[in-house]
Amino acid sequence: MEVEPVFIAGGCNRSSSAISWQKSQNAAIAFCCSNLVLIGNADSATIESSLVGHGPDVTVNAVKWVQDGSGRLISGDSDGSINIWTYHSNRSYSLNATLTGHLASVTNLSVIVALDGHLLISSCASDGTVRLWRDGKCVQTIECTALPLCSALVIYQDRVFLAVGDVDAQVILYRLERDEQFARVAVLNGHGDWIRGLDFMVSEKKECVLASAAQDRLIRIWVFSDAESVHVSLESVLAGHDQGVLSVRWGPDQQLLSASMDKTMIIWSHDKDSDLWISMAQTGEVGGHNLACYCAEWSPDGNRLICNTYNGAFYLWSRTNDGRFTSSPIFSGHSSPVASLAWNPEGQYIISAGEEDQTTRIFSTWTHGPGLSPTFHEIGRPQMHGYDMSCVCPIASVAHRFASGAQEKVIRVFDAPRNFIQDLHQLSGVDSIEKSDIVRAENVFCPEIGLSNKAVSERDDRSSMTGPPDESLLMQDKLWPEVAKLYGHGNDVFAMTCAHDGTTLASSCSSKEPNQAAIILWSTSTWKPKQSLPIHSLTVVQIEFSHDDKFLLSVSRDRSIAISMRVDDVWKTTMCLEKTHHRIIWSCSWSHDDLYFATGSRDKKIHVWKVDRSNGSFSLDSTIATKSAVTAVAFTDDYLLGVGCEDGSIYIYKGQFGSEKILVWESAVDFPKEICHSRAVRALKWNPRQGVLTLASCSSDHTVRLFSIQERP
């Protein structure tokens, strides 16, 4: 069998150095996501590559393309390491070198190719130093008197200059001398707060121009014209932002782009007639939930702008023929570990739940048009909550309904509004005919003080969707109304599942005592508890109904496995086996025929159990040993078993009956490391549509991924 990555979703880390747009490719954007570097395509609004190479417990803070057409990329992380990546064909990258030396987090990178062809990198770190690297070797360490926050390199009149901005509101200018060491040549004072961004350019007048941005809300333009004497003068002070300015970038036409904590980007241009710098355009978010624009970048042709925001989102702005900028679709994703995901019963879209970003999101296809291949995008954000999310579960009894659980005692149920049905039809080609008799809301809003999404009856006269929604629409116009709250658990909701016939919802909560560890069964018609199953003594980690809804499988933090059986609509626990694994059991899954189920544990083992369907008892059938702790398992047809591990790896095993009618397991697919997650896999779900082998996964590395599995020709 062969595996092909289909889709990656991931948000951006909160850093003013987290984005870099490659000049040799008008669409290639690198950005930091958790401990990954992701490569996005601005034209298709998709993420094409995932670079795994930083440590599992770090955060990537800075990324920078080497702008020489080689496709090389530099990234720095919170552990003080710097990675150099090399591009190969077919969207693949390899880790060429790892530079170590910093004793604390790398916060900013700058890179140039010197006149002699050597690669020169400057790195700022929280250890109070700026290090200079030449072809991967540290050639100088500058001990700063104040914490450096940003740096910039430039070649001017055959000399290399380095600017460093620090928390003392100073910009310090260095020059590379004949002894291959940088020496201080100027100190630029004037800002009243931390220096957050620096960028050089060589102007049409052949002057070296440096832009500096600071938390004092101002941008200063510095100029010098002689690389030997270096007399720096202040040309202009740009005031236009209402809060601190976090980054500045020169564009290809010598316009300046700035991004600020006031949620805006401003394009500044020098007017030759008045000799003044003026604001040419301003873009950004008015209202909404964003708190800052961190890093802004130009496209190589200067016709597009991108920035990342506080909540990990992106805004892409494209210049129209009349010179204005309009918002365009761009890739998106969670900005925190993704705790759970599920397909809707028809396999049309994925619902995912992010922990700290406190959102549930919907990803589905955009068909583009006749003859074009569909691509996956975020098309809805039903819930923007006030608590960290823990689980999500579709309710099969009504189309486009789901329940979610968070670090609160309440389960919340949501129904899709009418505009989501329309969007799904327009973007994905899904039938928009309503098959249920529920009355759907026209629009939804969430009160400023409150957690419950409210329905609005007024019809929305908005135009039809022609592409995936941008961040503004996702935050404000793609909510789902809350239709029910389920009260019953004494602690934070941890796991839930719904019967395949949609009549029963099962849920569990975090528990350190047996009296809180009961599974509650809810009626999806009345939203009242039907029954409580006090089986386990600690948190029930996962619950799964069999495909015929006759059995309920549960696994617990206490290492016990239980099966409950439905008899005349009353559930009875038929067997509970304790200490079945040596470590916590993270996951369970039924086989397609309900004759077997699998359990995955931190003890690096998968146990496959055989079920006696007459009485609900079970016995160990076979065991699969893995290289890493197992965190997710998922069965599909023909005894194919997907396995996700703590190190981010994913495997597929195929079971076949041996001579003694025991399932014998062989590895069908080992996913290549470069397409796998970089942290623990939190959930695996197969698309329920028949004849389709598509596996969805989510992880603590902030990403949601889709993989297509095919038989080898």
Automatic annotation (TrEMBL):
GO-annotated biological processes: tRNA wobble uridine modification
WD repeats: 53-95, 188-232, 238-269, 286-327, 331-356, 578-619
Pathway connected to this protein: tRNA modification; 5-methoxycarbonylmethyl-2-thiouridine-tRNA biosynthesis
Alphabetical list of CDD domains matching this protein: WD40
Keywords, sorted A to Z: Cytoplasm, Nucleus, Repeat, tRNA processing, WD repeat
Location in or out of the cell: Cytoplasm; Nucleus
Primary site of residence: cytoplasm
GO cellular component entries: cytoplasm; elongator holoenzyme complex; nucleus
Pfam families in alphabetical order: WD40
Alphabetical list of SUPFAM superfamilies matching this protein: WD40 repeat-like, YVTN repeat-like/Quinoprotein amine dehydrogenase
Family assignment from sequence similarity: Belongs to the WD repeat ELP2 family.
Protein name: Elongator complex protein 2
